[in-house]
Design a protein that fits this description.
This protein is mainly α. The protein has a domain at 28-54. It has one helix at residues 2-22. The longest helix is centred in the N-terminal third of the chain and has 21 residues, at 2-22. It starts with a helix and ends in a 68-residue tail after the last helix.
């Protein structure tokens, strides 16, 4: 009985580990199509209704301006990957 329980626990732990490492979305897929968040724009500033105090603009979180990302080659992966250290080079 205990041996069977240990076997089940080992299978579940191994499956979970492998699913965490190899499951999910492939990060090497291409990112040629624009994503929905890339079209985001700044919204209007919140205004207090009549009869209420104005909002303190010093408590607002300023969003920094960013430079556009450098263009990537067509078909390049979405995420920059570090070099493979396990692959032997001649």
């Amino acid at each position: 009985m205990i041996r069977r329980l240990l076997t089940v626990c080992l299978v579940v732990a191994t499956s979970s580990t492998l699913a965490g490492c190899f499951g999910g979305k492939d990060v090497d897929t291409s990112c040629d199509e624009p994503r929905f968040y890339e079209a985001a724009q700044d919204g209007r500033r919140v205004k207090a209704p009549a009869g209420l105090d104005d909002l303190d603009q010093f408590k607002e979180m300023p969003l920094p301006e960013t430079a556009p990302a450098p263009p990537k080659q067509a078909g390049s992966p979405c995420v920059d990957r570090p070099p493979n250290v396990l692959k032997r080079q001649n």
